[in-house]
Design goal:
Layout (H helix, E strand, L loop, with lengths): L5 E6 L5 E5 L6 H14 L11 H17 L2 E8 L2 E10 L7 E8 L8 H15 L4 E7 L3 H9 L3 E12 L2 E11 L8
Parallel strand pairs: 5-6
Antiparallel strand pairs: 1-2, 2-3, 3-4, 4-5, 6-8, 7-8
Helix pairs in contact: 1-2
The structure holds coenzyme A (COA).
The site of coenzyme A has 21 residues, from strand 5, helix 3 and helix 4.
Amino acid sequence: MRTGTLIKTLDAKDGRNVILRTPKWEDLDDLIEFINSIIEEGADLGTYQKVTREQEAEWLGQQLAETEKGNRFVVLAEVHGKVVANASIVKYAGYLAHVGELSIAIKNGFRDIGVGTEMLKTLISRAENMGLKMLTLTVFSTNNRAKHVYEKVEFRETGCIPNGLYKNGKFIDHIIMVKEITRAPKSI
Ligand SMILES: CC(C)(COP(=O)(O)OP(=O)(O)OC[C@H]1O[C@@H](n2cnc3c(N)ncnc32)[C@H](O)[C@@H]1OP(=O)(O)O)[C@@H](O)C(=O)NCCC(=O)NCCS
């Protein structure tokens, strides 16, 4: 898919207009601000180190290149010309080539207005085009909002790594969730 391609527009629950689209090079500064604001807030993500411009440029370049090859699909949400959310599917390789890893983050101030649910639905509808049979994700057991939203789009909890995360001096269970895109036929 070309970069910066419009996927859809929607009216969020608070009335703000939201554009869902693929990323483009010009998003670099917005993306740095976006990811560093989420890290600064201490959100339940796998990373806690702020990124430099150089690191984010390398990351964005990789996203664009892998998207071009069909191994990745990235959707951004834009409100009033600013990037406020990022979600993606990364396709695995080899014996895992039918599996995609999903991730999503929305900037503080833009949550609970329906954007996450819409972005997840967008990713799920793309998964089949990418030849994927299932999507997986991991989530902090304490992240009740994220778990609720994932369940709403029919991810189910399939596993738990007890104490798989360590944050602010506490161990937290790491939950694994799965959504089948097309069910494999049962063997006879
Ligand atoms: C988790 C996240 C992606 C969800 O996206 P979002 O846009 O906020 O979600 P939506 O507005 O579509 O839906 C929020 C739902 O969660 C519910 N909710 C909010 N707080 C909740 C809580 N503490 N426990 C359970 N449900 C909660 C809302 O009521 C709403 O449910 P409904 O649609 O059934 O009414 C987003 O909040 C986010 O990025 N958070 C910070 C980073 C993060 O946690 N990323 C996920 C890492 S695995």
